[in-house]
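User: Predict the structure for this protein chain, please.
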Amino acid sequence: MEIIKKDGRLQEFDKKKIFTSLDNASKDVDGIALNESDIKILVEDICKKLEMIRGNDNPSSSYEIIGVIIDVLKKDGFAPIAKSFVEY
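Assistant: Here is the predicted structure, written as structure tokens:
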């Protein structure tokens, strides 16, 4: 899957970037610690939701990906991490 960057370029989607962003956001929240396994599950949920929305052939925007990440975090009970992610 490709993503449309904010400047209009197309770039291959990289799960590692999502993993790193979630890891960093969770470290900024006191009292909620995500372990590697938790983050992997969240990343897979995010990827599945993106595939449902766009499929593998249609590029997704970085804004859409951010929205999906926030939605998945909130739905899974990690609203404080979603807030930290937005601020990150």
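Strands lie at 2-4, 10-12, 60-61.
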